[in-house]
Amino acid sequence: MSIESLKERLPDYAKDLRLNLGSLANDITLSPQQLAGTFVATAIASRNADVTRAIVAEYESVLSPEVLAAAKSAAAIMGMNNIYYRFVHMVGGDYAQMPARLRMSVIGRPGVDKLDFELWSLAVSAVNGCGMCVESHEKVVREGGLSTEQVQTAVRIAATVHAVAATLEAAFALGDSPAN
Q: What is the fold, at CATH topology level, of the domain defined by 3-104+114-174?
C-alpha cells in the first residue's frame, strides 16, 4: 500500500482530501525527515490500520530505522500524554501542581533530532485534541527555529491524515466505493 492507494480508495465526495493528501506528500516546507515522520506519527494516531500501513509503507524506505522508531514513539507517548494532560487542563485545580508520575523518558532522549520529535508530538497532539500539549510543543518548535509555515504544514498533515482515516472508515461502513 501507499499514499496513492489511499487516494484511490477515497470516495469522490472526499476529492478535497485526495488532493490535499497528494500535495502534502510533496510539500517542501518541511525537511524530508520531518515530513515523513509527521505522516507516520499522525497515521498511527489516526487509529486506522489501513492508513497506518499505507503511510508507513510509503515512508519506511525514506527513514532510517531509528527515525521510524522515533516517529512511532512520538505517537505512542502522545497517546498517553494527550489523555493525561487534557484531563489536567479540563479539570484544573490541584492536578496541575501534581507530578504526572508517568514515565516519559523518550521525550528527553528520542533518538533523533529533538526538534523533529517535538514537531511530531505537536502533530499527534493536534490529532488527539490536547490543547495543553499543542501549546507546549508549538512553543518548543518555534523557539527551536521552525517557522509558523512549517508548524502549519505539520498540522495540515495531521488534519488530512485524520480526515482520510475517518472517511475511509465511514466509506467502508456505508459501502461507499471510490466512484460514489
A: AhpD-like (1.20.1290)
SS3 32: helix
130 assigned to active site: yes
User: For this structure, is 156 an active site residue?
Assistant: no
Which residue of the set 68, 130, 134, 171 is catalytic? 130
* CB contact at 8 A, 18 and 9: no
Which three cell numbers mark 98?
A: 501534581
CB contact at 8 A, 17 and 163: yes
The rounded distance, in Å, linking the Cα atoms of 163 and 21 is 10
- 79 and 45 in contact (C-beta within 8 Å)? yes
Q: How would you write the pLDDT of the chain (180 residues) with one tens digit per residue?
A: 799 999 999 999 999 999 999 999 999 999 999 999 999 999 999 999 999 999 999 999 999 999 999 999 999 999 999 999 999 999 989 999 998 888 888 888 888 999 999 999 999 999 999 999 999 999 999 999 999 999 999 999 999 999 999 999 998 888 876 644
51, 168 contact by CB (below 8 A): yes
pTM for this model (two decimals): 0.94
CB contact at 8 A, 56 and 40? yes
From the candidates 54, 133, 165, 171, which is the catalytic residue?
Answer: 133
**Quick one: cell of 45?**
494516531
